[in-house]
Write a structure and sequence with these properties.
Layout (H helix, E strand, L loop, with lengths): L1 H19 L5 E7 L5 E7 L2 E8 L10 H10 L3 E7 H12 L9 E6 L5 E4 L17
Parallel strand pairs: 3-4, 4-5
Antiparallel strand pairs: 1-2, 2-3, 5-6
Length: about 140
């Protein structure tokens, strides 16, 4: 079942990449690793310019994920991480840890059971609650 969902998300994302990067020299390659994650590589004139990872509900929680993301970003290429919508904001918070060390170009998407993608934007800091203004008569 998870494999089917990874393939649904990959199909949708590959279509989006085609729309975002319509250049004839752009080539994509999709594969699934031994953990069930979907991997999309994006090449421009044979050079790797982006890697996208479709995480499963469990795979993003593995302890080495942040290191893997950092290694991709060290290549100075774009990283896109897709996770189940219920986990996507947690993934986004985890990715913020990278900003302590690096300024990178990455995006996080959440996906639903139909494979639809929604971009997860930077979290907004919680507002500090101000005391109510006392009523003055």
């Amino acid at each position: 079942m998870a494999d089917d969902l990874v393939f649904k998300v990959a199909k949708r994302r590959l279509q989006e990449i085609g729309d975002e990067l319509p250049h004839p020299d752009i080539v994509t390659h999709f594969s699934v690793d031994e953990k069930g994650r979907g991997l999309i590589d994006i090449f421009y004139q044979g050079k790797l310019i982006g890697q996208e990872i479709i995480e499963t509900a469990e795979s993003w929680k593995e302890k080495d994920r942040l290191i893997a993301y950092r290694n991709i970003l060290r290549k100075k290429i774009r990283l896109v991480v897709m996770a189940p919508r219920s986990e996507a904001m947690r993934v986004r918070y985890m990715m913020l840890e990278l900003n302590n060390w690096w300024l990178f170009y990455y995006m996080v998407y959440g996906y639903d059971s139909a494979g639809r993608l929604v971009r997860v934007l930077r979290p907004v800091p919680l507002e500090t609650k101000t005391p109510e203004t006392p009523y003055i008569s």
